[in-house]
What we know:
By secondary structure, the protein is α+β, with helices and mostly antiparallel strands.
Amino acid sequence: MTILENVTRSFTNHFNRLPGFISKAPGRVNLIGEHTDYNDGFVLPAAIDFFTLVATSEREDDLIQVIALDYAGQTDEFSVNAGFDAHPTQMWSNYIRAVVRTLVDRGHQLKGCNLVVSGNVPQGAGLSSSASLEVAIAQAILTVAGIQIPATELALIGQAAENNYVGCACGIMDQLVSASGKKGHALLIDCRSLEATPIIMPPQLSIVIINSGVERGLVDSEYNLRRQQCAEAAKFFNQSVLRDVTKEQFLAAAHELPDVVRKRAKHVIEENERTVEAAKALATNNVALLSQLMAESHVSMRDLFEITTPEIDYLVAALDKELGSDGGVRMTGGGFGGCIVALMPKQKLSAVASTLVDYQLKTGLIATPFICTPEQGASLVAVES
Ligand code: GLA
Protein backbone atom coordinates (compact mmCIF):
# COMPACT_ATOMS: atom_id res chain seq x y z
CA MET A 1 0.00 0.00 0.00
CA THR A 2 1.35 3.45 -0.84
CA ILE A 3 1.53 6.19 1.80
CA LEU A 4 -1.25 8.01 -0.07
CA GLU A 5 -3.52 4.95 0.12
CA ASN A 6 -2.58 4.43 3.76
CA VAL A 7 -3.45 7.96 4.94
CA THR A 8 -6.67 7.95 2.88
CA ARG A 9 -7.77 4.55 4.17
CA SER A 10 -6.87 5.29 7.80
CA PHE A 11 -8.67 8.62 7.63
CA THR A 12 -11.80 6.98 6.24
CA ASN A 13 -11.73 4.18 8.84
CA HIS A 14 -11.28 6.59 11.70
CA PHE A 15 -13.50 9.51 10.74
CA ASN A 16 -16.10 7.66 8.68
CA ARG A 17 -15.65 9.87 5.64
CA LEU A 18 -13.12 10.50 2.91
CA PRO A 19 -10.62 13.29 3.57
CA GLY A 20 -11.40 16.53 1.72
CA PHE A 21 -7.83 16.71 0.38
CA ILE A 22 -4.26 15.61 1.11
CA SER A 23 -1.57 18.17 1.89
CA LYS A 24 1.89 17.11 0.69
CA ALA A 25 5.33 18.62 1.43
CA PRO A 26 8.76 17.15 0.58
CA GLY A 27 12.03 16.78 2.48
CA ARG A 28 15.18 18.26 0.94
CA VAL A 29 18.80 17.62 0.18
CA ASN A 30 21.27 20.49 0.19
CA LEU A 31 23.80 20.27 -2.66
CA ILE A 32 26.04 23.01 -1.24
CA GLY A 33 25.80 26.08 1.04
CA GLU A 34 25.87 24.76 4.60
CA HIS A 35 25.22 26.98 7.63
CA THR A 36 25.01 29.97 5.30
CA ASP A 37 21.21 30.48 5.52
CA TYR A 38 21.16 32.12 8.96
CA ASN A 39 24.03 34.33 7.81
CA ASP A 40 21.70 35.75 5.11
CA GLY A 41 23.81 33.89 2.53
CA PHE A 42 23.23 31.45 -0.35
CA VAL A 43 22.12 27.80 -0.39
CA LEU A 44 21.54 25.32 -3.23
CA PRO A 45 19.04 22.65 -2.09
CA ALA A 46 16.50 20.53 -3.98
CA ALA A 47 13.18 19.18 -2.72
CA ILE A 48 13.23 15.37 -2.99
CA ASP A 49 10.87 12.44 -3.53
CA PHE A 50 10.51 11.78 0.20
CA PHE A 51 7.54 13.61 1.71
CA THR A 52 4.96 14.03 4.47
CA LEU A 53 1.25 13.61 3.67
CA VAL A 54 -1.60 15.02 5.76
CA ALA A 55 -5.11 13.74 4.97
CA THR A 56 -7.42 16.56 6.02
CA SER A 57 -11.05 17.54 6.46
CA GLU A 58 -12.93 20.32 8.19
CA ARG A 59 -14.71 19.85 11.54
CA GLU A 60 -17.79 21.60 12.90
CA ASP A 61 -16.05 22.64 16.17
CA ASP A 62 -12.71 24.37 16.85
CA LEU A 63 -10.71 21.25 17.63
CA ILE A 64 -7.68 19.93 15.81
CA GLN A 65 -7.64 16.16 16.01
CA VAL A 66 -4.47 14.45 14.75
CA ILE A 67 -3.47 10.83 14.21
CA ALA A 68 0.22 10.06 13.59
CA LEU A 69 0.40 6.78 11.66
CA ASP A 70 4.19 6.61 11.93
CA TYR A 71 3.96 6.70 15.74
CA ALA A 72 1.76 3.63 16.14
CA GLY A 73 -1.39 5.71 15.64
CA GLN A 74 -0.74 8.06 18.59
CA THR A 75 -3.23 10.93 18.71
CA ASP A 76 -3.41 14.54 19.81
CA GLU A 77 -6.35 16.90 20.26
CA PHE A 78 -6.46 20.61 21.11
CA SER A 79 -8.38 23.77 20.33
CA VAL A 80 -7.10 25.84 17.39
CA ASN A 81 -7.04 28.83 19.70
CA ALA A 82 -5.20 27.18 22.62
CA GLY A 83 -1.84 28.63 23.70
CA PHE A 84 1.27 26.53 23.09
CA ASP A 85 1.78 23.81 25.67
CA ALA A 86 4.58 21.33 25.03
CA HIS A 87 3.28 17.76 24.93
CA PRO A 88 4.86 15.82 27.81
CA THR A 89 5.82 12.77 25.76
CA GLN A 90 4.99 13.13 22.05
CA MET A 91 7.64 15.28 20.36
CA TRP A 92 5.84 15.00 17.00
CA SER A 93 2.79 16.72 18.57
CA ASN A 94 4.89 19.76 19.40
CA TYR A 95 5.61 20.48 15.73
CA ILE A 96 1.88 20.51 15.01
CA ARG A 97 0.96 22.55 18.09
CA ALA A 98 3.79 24.98 17.23
CA VAL A 99 2.56 25.49 13.65
CA VAL A 100 -1.04 26.09 14.77
CA ARG A 101 0.09 28.56 17.43
CA THR A 102 2.28 30.40 14.90
CA LEU A 103 -0.63 30.72 12.47
CA VAL A 104 -2.74 32.23 15.27
CA ASP A 105 0.14 34.56 16.26
CA ARG A 106 0.12 35.83 12.67
CA GLY A 107 -3.56 36.70 12.92
CA HIS A 108 -5.06 33.89 10.85
CA GLN A 109 -8.64 32.87 11.68
CA LEU A 110 -8.50 29.09 11.77
CA LYS A 111 -11.13 26.32 11.76
CA GLY A 112 -11.10 22.94 13.47
CA CYS A 113 -9.99 19.95 11.39
CA ASN A 114 -9.18 16.26 11.41
CA LEU A 115 -5.67 15.29 10.30
CA VAL A 116 -4.02 11.93 9.56
CA VAL A 117 -0.25 12.24 9.10
CA SER A 118 2.33 9.90 7.59
CA GLY A 119 5.56 10.28 5.64
CA ASN A 120 8.72 8.61 4.40
CA VAL A 121 11.40 11.26 5.01
CA PRO A 122 14.01 9.40 7.09
CA GLN A 123 13.95 11.01 10.55
CA GLY A 124 17.08 12.40 12.20
CA ALA A 125 19.06 11.96 8.98
CA GLY A 126 19.41 15.63 8.00
CA LEU A 127 16.81 15.45 5.19
CA SER A 128 14.37 17.88 6.86
CA SER A 129 11.60 15.58 8.00
CA SER A 130 10.52 18.28 10.49
CA ALA A 131 10.38 21.05 7.89
CA SER A 132 8.28 18.83 5.61
CA LEU A 133 5.89 18.13 8.53
CA GLU A 134 5.63 21.83 9.42
CA VAL A 135 4.96 22.91 5.83
CA ALA A 136 2.44 20.11 5.15
CA ILE A 137 0.55 20.90 8.38
CA ALA A 138 0.52 24.69 7.80
CA GLN A 139 -0.75 24.17 4.25
CA ALA A 140 -3.46 21.74 5.45
CA ILE A 141 -4.78 24.04 8.18
CA LEU A 142 -4.71 27.17 6.02
CA THR A 143 -6.53 25.34 3.21
CA VAL A 144 -9.31 24.24 5.58
CA ALA A 145 -9.68 27.88 6.66
CA GLY A 146 -9.85 28.99 3.01
CA ILE A 147 -6.64 31.04 3.30
CA GLN A 148 -4.09 31.22 0.47
CA ILE A 149 -0.57 32.53 1.13
CA PRO A 150 2.65 32.63 -0.93
CA ALA A 151 5.17 29.77 -0.57
CA THR A 152 7.70 32.06 1.15
CA GLU A 153 5.15 32.92 3.85
CA LEU A 154 4.36 29.21 4.33
CA ALA A 155 8.09 28.64 4.87
CA LEU A 156 8.42 31.53 7.32
CA ILE A 157 5.55 30.07 9.37
CA GLY A 158 7.33 26.69 9.60
CA GLN A 159 10.59 28.37 10.59
CA ALA A 160 8.90 30.60 13.20
CA ALA A 161 7.13 27.55 14.68
CA GLU A 162 10.47 25.81 15.07
CA ASN A 163 12.35 28.92 16.34
CA ASN A 164 9.71 30.17 18.79
CA TYR A 165 8.09 27.00 20.11
CA VAL A 166 10.06 23.85 19.26
CA GLY A 167 13.28 25.58 20.33
CA CYS A 168 15.61 25.09 17.37
CA ALA A 169 17.17 28.28 15.98
CA CYS A 170 17.17 26.95 12.38
CA GLY A 171 17.48 29.13 9.28
CA ILE A 172 14.99 29.33 6.40
CA MET A 173 16.48 26.87 3.88
CA ASP A 174 14.61 23.67 4.75
CA GLN A 175 11.12 25.15 4.96
CA LEU A 176 11.63 27.35 1.89
CA VAL A 177 12.70 24.55 -0.43
CA SER A 178 9.99 22.27 0.97
CA ALA A 179 7.40 24.97 0.20
CA SER A 180 8.72 26.10 -3.19
CA GLY A 181 10.89 23.36 -4.76
CA LYS A 182 10.69 22.91 -8.54
CA LYS A 183 10.57 19.54 -10.30
CA GLY A 184 13.84 18.69 -12.07
CA HIS A 185 15.61 21.66 -10.49
CA ALA A 186 17.71 22.71 -7.52
CA LEU A 187 17.02 26.19 -6.10
CA LEU A 188 19.70 28.83 -5.63
CA ILE A 189 18.19 30.69 -2.67
CA ASP A 190 19.33 34.10 -1.54
CA CYS A 191 18.43 33.78 2.14
CA ARG A 192 18.34 37.55 2.55
CA SER A 193 15.76 38.40 -0.13
CA LEU A 194 14.30 34.84 -0.13
CA GLU A 195 14.50 34.96 -3.92
CA ALA A 196 14.82 31.42 -5.31
CA THR A 197 16.32 30.85 -8.77
CA PRO A 198 15.60 27.38 -10.23
CA ILE A 199 18.71 25.69 -11.67
CA ILE A 200 18.01 22.76 -13.96
CA MET A 201 19.69 19.50 -12.91
CA PRO A 202 21.79 18.08 -15.76
CA PRO A 203 19.81 14.98 -16.83
CA GLN A 204 22.86 12.69 -16.85
CA LEU A 205 23.60 13.37 -13.15
CA SER A 206 21.95 11.27 -10.45
CA ILE A 207 21.48 12.63 -6.94
CA VAL A 208 22.58 9.91 -4.54
CA ILE A 209 21.94 10.42 -0.84
CA ILE A 210 23.68 8.04 1.54
CA ASN A 211 22.58 7.82 5.16
CA SER A 212 25.87 7.21 6.96
CA GLY A 213 24.22 5.40 9.86
CA VAL A 214 25.97 7.85 12.22
CA GLU A 215 23.25 8.99 14.64
CA ARG A 216 23.08 12.74 14.81
CA GLY A 217 24.11 13.82 18.29
CA LEU A 218 24.37 17.19 20.12
CA VAL A 219 22.68 18.71 17.10
CA ASP A 220 20.72 21.49 18.78
CA SER A 221 23.41 22.68 21.19
CA GLU A 222 26.21 22.55 18.60
CA TYR A 223 23.98 24.17 15.96
CA ASN A 224 23.06 27.05 18.24
CA LEU A 225 26.73 27.45 19.24
CA ARG A 226 27.72 27.79 15.56
CA ARG A 227 25.07 30.51 15.17
CA GLN A 228 26.49 32.41 18.14
CA GLN A 229 30.05 32.13 16.81
CA CYS A 230 28.94 33.47 13.40
CA ALA A 231 27.13 36.35 15.12
CA GLU A 232 30.26 37.11 17.15
CA ALA A 233 32.36 37.22 13.98
CA ALA A 234 29.85 39.52 12.25
CA LYS A 235 29.80 41.82 15.29
CA PHE A 236 33.57 42.14 15.17
CA PHE A 237 33.12 43.66 11.71
CA ASN A 238 30.23 45.86 12.93
CA GLN A 239 27.69 43.83 10.98
CA SER A 240 24.78 41.71 12.16
CA VAL A 241 25.37 38.86 9.67
CA LEU A 242 28.41 37.48 7.83
CA ARG A 243 26.79 38.12 4.43
CA ASP A 244 27.87 41.72 4.86
CA VAL A 245 31.55 40.95 5.51
CA THR A 246 33.59 40.82 2.31
CA LYS A 247 36.45 38.40 1.79
CA GLU A 248 38.87 41.38 1.69
CA GLN A 249 37.61 42.80 5.00
CA PHE A 250 37.86 39.36 6.54
CA LEU A 251 41.41 38.70 5.31
CA ALA A 252 42.61 42.12 6.45
CA ALA A 253 41.50 41.54 10.06
CA ALA A 254 41.28 37.74 10.41
CA HIS A 255 44.37 37.56 12.64
CA GLU A 256 42.61 39.68 15.30
CA LEU A 257 39.78 37.16 15.73
CA PRO A 258 39.83 34.30 18.26
CA ASP A 259 40.87 31.12 16.44
CA VAL A 260 37.50 29.33 16.55
CA VAL A 261 35.53 32.42 15.48
CA ARG A 262 37.96 33.05 12.62
CA LYS A 263 37.50 29.49 11.34
CA ARG A 264 33.68 29.70 11.48
CA ALA A 265 33.67 33.02 9.63
CA LYS A 266 36.07 31.79 6.95
CA HIS A 267 33.83 28.81 6.27
CA VAL A 268 30.70 30.93 5.85
CA ILE A 269 32.31 33.65 3.70
CA GLU A 270 33.93 31.12 1.34
CA GLU A 271 30.92 28.77 1.34
CA ASN A 272 28.75 31.63 0.07
CA GLU A 273 31.14 32.15 -2.85
CA ARG A 274 31.28 28.42 -3.57
CA THR A 275 27.50 28.15 -3.58
CA VAL A 276 27.01 30.88 -6.17
CA GLU A 277 29.78 29.35 -8.28
CA ALA A 278 28.30 25.86 -7.92
CA ALA A 279 24.92 27.10 -9.19
CA LYS A 280 26.67 28.41 -12.32
CA ALA A 281 28.59 25.14 -12.70
CA LEU A 282 25.35 23.15 -12.43
CA ALA A 283 23.59 25.40 -14.95
CA THR A 284 26.44 24.99 -17.45
CA ASN A 285 26.92 21.28 -16.74
CA ASN A 286 30.50 21.85 -15.56
CA VAL A 287 30.78 18.67 -13.48
CA ALA A 288 34.54 18.97 -12.90
CA LEU A 289 34.04 22.37 -11.24
CA LEU A 290 31.09 21.08 -9.19
CA SER A 291 33.24 18.18 -8.06
CA GLN A 292 35.96 20.56 -6.88
CA LEU A 293 33.53 22.93 -5.11
CA MET A 294 31.75 20.10 -3.28
CA ALA A 295 35.10 18.69 -2.16
CA GLU A 296 36.19 22.12 -0.88
CA SER A 297 32.87 22.53 0.92
CA HIS A 298 33.33 19.22 2.71
CA VAL A 299 36.89 20.04 3.79
CA SER A 300 35.68 23.40 5.08
CA MET A 301 32.87 21.75 7.08
CA ARG A 302 35.42 19.31 8.46
CA ASP A 303 38.30 21.65 9.30
CA LEU A 304 36.77 25.11 9.75
CA PHE A 305 33.14 24.66 10.79
CA GLU A 306 33.92 21.32 12.52
CA ILE A 307 30.53 19.67 11.99
CA THR A 308 31.50 16.37 10.33
CA THR A 309 32.39 13.06 12.01
CA PRO A 310 35.37 10.75 11.24
CA GLU A 311 33.06 8.09 9.74
CA ILE A 312 31.43 10.62 7.41
CA ASP A 313 34.84 12.02 6.42
CA TYR A 314 35.92 8.49 5.55
CA LEU A 315 32.80 7.81 3.47
CA VAL A 316 33.11 11.09 1.56
CA ALA A 317 36.83 10.54 0.87
CA ALA A 318 36.24 6.97 -0.35
CA LEU A 319 33.46 7.97 -2.75
CA ASP A 320 35.34 11.06 -3.91
CA LYS A 321 38.23 8.81 -4.93
CA GLU A 322 35.87 6.65 -7.02
CA LEU A 323 34.17 9.61 -8.68
CA GLY A 324 37.21 11.73 -9.47
CA SER A 325 36.16 14.80 -11.46
CA ASP A 326 33.12 12.96 -12.93
CA GLY A 327 31.04 13.70 -9.83
CA GLY A 328 30.95 15.50 -6.49
CA VAL A 329 30.34 14.40 -2.90
CA ARG A 330 30.02 16.07 0.51
CA MET A 331 28.16 15.85 3.80
CA THR A 332 24.72 17.47 3.59
CA GLY A 333 22.61 19.23 6.24
CA GLY A 334 23.31 20.55 9.72
CA GLY A 335 26.02 17.98 10.51
CA PHE A 336 27.17 15.78 13.42
CA GLY A 337 25.98 12.64 11.59
CA GLY A 338 23.26 12.01 9.04
CA CYS A 339 23.68 11.94 5.26
CA ILE A 340 26.15 12.64 2.51
CA VAL A 341 25.08 13.72 -0.99
CA ALA A 342 26.75 12.78 -4.25
CA LEU A 343 26.10 13.99 -7.80
CA MET A 344 27.28 11.39 -10.29
CA PRO A 345 26.75 10.01 -13.78
CA LYS A 346 24.66 6.82 -13.90
CA GLN A 347 27.62 4.71 -15.01
CA LYS A 348 29.34 5.47 -11.69
CA LEU A 349 26.45 4.17 -9.56
CA SER A 350 28.16 0.78 -9.18
CA ALA A 351 31.01 2.54 -7.31
CA VAL A 352 28.57 3.31 -4.49
CA ALA A 353 27.96 -0.35 -3.65
CA SER A 354 31.65 -1.22 -3.33
CA THR A 355 32.32 1.95 -1.30
CA LEU A 356 29.56 1.00 1.16
CA VAL A 357 30.94 -2.51 1.66
CA ASP A 358 34.35 -1.03 2.38
CA TYR A 359 32.75 1.54 4.74
CA GLN A 360 31.02 -1.19 6.72
CA LEU A 361 34.24 -3.17 7.07
CA LYS A 362 36.10 -0.08 8.23
CA THR A 363 33.49 1.44 10.60
CA GLY A 364 31.05 -1.36 11.41
CA LEU A 365 28.22 0.93 10.25
CA ILE A 366 25.60 0.09 7.66
CA ALA A 367 25.05 3.00 5.28
CA THR A 368 21.86 3.22 3.21
CA PRO A 369 21.85 4.77 -0.28
CA PHE A 370 18.86 6.41 -2.00
CA ILE A 371 18.74 7.67 -5.56
CA CYS A 372 16.59 10.78 -5.45
CA THR A 373 14.89 13.03 -7.95
CA PRO A 374 14.32 16.79 -7.54
CA GLU A 375 10.62 17.40 -6.94
CA GLN A 376 8.14 20.22 -6.69
CA GLY A 377 7.45 21.80 -3.31
CA ALA A 378 4.27 21.69 -1.23
CA SER A 379 1.07 20.84 -3.09
CA LEU A 380 -2.47 19.61 -2.57
CA VAL A 381 -3.32 16.12 -3.78
CA ALA A 382 -6.89 15.31 -4.79
CA VAL A 383 -8.53 12.38 -3.00
CA GLU A 384 -9.60 9.39 -5.06
CA SER A 385 -12.49 7.34 -3.70
C1 GLA B 1 19.68 22.66 9.33
C2 GLA B 1 18.86 23.94 9.47
C3 GLA B 1 19.01 24.83 8.23
C4 GLA B 1 20.48 25.04 7.85
C5 GLA B 1 21.23 23.70 7.83
C6 GLA B 1 22.72 23.89 7.65
O1 GLA B 1 19.13 21.86 8.30
O2 GLA B 1 17.51 23.65 9.67
O3 GLA B 1 18.36 26.05 8.42
O4 GLA B 1 21.08 25.96 8.71
O5 GLA B 1 21.03 22.96 9.03
O6 GLA B 1 23.00 24.36 6.38
